[in-house]
Amino acid sequence: MSAVARKRKMHTALLVPNATDPEYARLWTDRWVSYPRAVQILGRISELQDLPDRVRMPNLLIHGPSGVGKSMIIAKFLRDLPDPLTRGRRPPAPVVAFQMPAMPTLRSFYSQLIRALDMPVLMGSALSELENDAIRKLKIAKPRLLIVDELHHLLACIPREQRAALNTLKFLSNEFRISIVALGTDDALHVMRTDPQIASRFDHCALPIWTASEEFRSFVAGFGEQLVMDVTAIANDAAAVDYLLDITGGVTGRIVEMIRLAARNALRCGKRKLTLDALQAAGREILDDLNSG
User: Could you list the residue range(s) of the whole structural domain that residue 226 is in?
Assistant: First the structure.
């Protein structure tokens, strides 16, 4: 093994928490920290779920950079739904959620939808059979909301297949009087704009990157509290906030991973307080990892 390979292996080992130690393992557990923009979006999704039937149901497109927290918001929304079991009987499903396939076609689209409806997909089924299965199950489930993540995956298919997928979403919304919440990167906006009729049916809701603000400091403090770490010295230090935003680009996913790295290093030293020095050490690890890749 070369010296470079040994160095990379050692560095990778440092980045992996000790799964046998609860203190380290809990650092990498997904955690929800509320913040105003997320609360606003969750409220809007709840409103769509509770709407009565209308000829033209309103829909929502949530878009923003990869890792900014779109899927976490949906996961939070789904976790907070009431228990679907009532007195041993399953009522109509309130929400159906699935991801747009990586290589979207109508076959893969309907297959994903069928799986989200807890039905098996029979190999070799014709497109018409998949469509009939999905429609039959939707009529039984009577969902109030359809959530489609990774809408930007439609850019991976040819324009004709993009239009077919968008028309299918429009058909499902019309046929079942159901609102659709779509999520994707900002490229999802370009997908929507290829069909003005579809675009007119979706309100746009941007989830931007973080900037230095009181909301961001509150988010950092809240995440530190979830980790049972004292991050006061970071949240209240303008230099630390600027450094954190500079290294991560203001992307939520990168921010929480950097705080986790700093917390892991602090725990190894028997400390629960994070400082600018601890944050800079984590930043150097991240940069070294990027430079060695």
Answer: 3-30+210-292
* Residue 43 DSSP SS3: helix
Element (H, E) at 132: helix 127-141
Burial class of residue 221, CB neighbours in 10 A (0-12, 13-18, 19+): middle
Residue pLDDT, tens place only, 185-224? 999 988 888 888 888 899 999 999 999 999 999 999 999 9
Q: How many domains does the chain have?
A: 2
Percent residues over pLDDT 90 in the chain: 66
Check: CB of residue 186 under 8 Å from CB of residue 61: no
Distance of alpha carbon 173 from alpha carbon 56, whole angstroms: 8
d(CA 13, CA 102): 31
In a shared domain, residues 219 and 163: no
**Can you tell me the distance from the alpha carbon of 19 to that of 26, in angstroms, rounded to the nearest whole number?**
9
Least reliable range by pLDDT among 21-25, 202-206, 266-270: 21-25
